[in-house]
Amino acid sequence: MSDSKTYPQTPAASGASSVPQAAPAVRPPRAAGFLSSMFGSSAGRILPVFVLIVAALSLTANDFLTVDNITNVLRQMVFVSVIAFAATFVIGMGGIDLSVGATTALTGLFMADLMLQGVNIYLAVLAGLLLGGLIGLVNGLLIDRLGISPFICTLAAMIILRGVVMVYSQGVPLTGLGFSEFQWFGQGSIAGVPVPVLAMVLVFAVCWYLLYRTKYGRYVLSIGSNREAARLVGIGISRIQVSVYVMTGFAAALAGLLLTSRLEAAMPEAATNYELDVIAAVVIGGTSLNGGKASLAGTAIGAALMAVVRNGLNLLNVNTFWHQVVIGSIILVAVSFDALSARRRAKAS
Question: Which GO terms describe its molecular function (predicted)?
Answer without folding.
Answer: transmembrane transporter activity
